[in-house]
Specification:
This protein is an alpha/beta fold. Helix content is about 25%, strand content about 20%. A five-stranded mixed sheet has the order 3-2-1-4-5, with helices on one face. Strand 2 and strand 3 form a beta hairpin. Helix 1 crosses helix 2. It is globular, with a radius of gyration of 21 Å. About 15% of the residues have low confidence.
Length: about 110
Amino acid sequence: IQLTFGLELHANGDIVVDKKKVSNDSAVLGLAREALKKNKDVRAVIRADKTVQHGRIIRVLDLLKQAGISKIAFGVTPISAEPGAAAATATAAPAATAAPAPAPEGK
């Protein structure tokens, strides 16, 4: 059985590990080491809000590698704005297009 170590990076700065909010990104290192001790085949899955800065995601990747986790994937399901809330499933309305201007009448 492969264990999944889930991480969610939220736009407001929150980080959730296995559905539990943690104090900061650095807390990931210890939790990842614990998960690896429980199962050497642990796979980390990172899900991040689209507004999370690239550097923060790279920092979390580095922490996972420091912990010894080499199997890392990115989740594709959007995360909710608030940790623990259900993922939003709203669909965007199609963009409105302006009607073409009427052709001028010839004189």
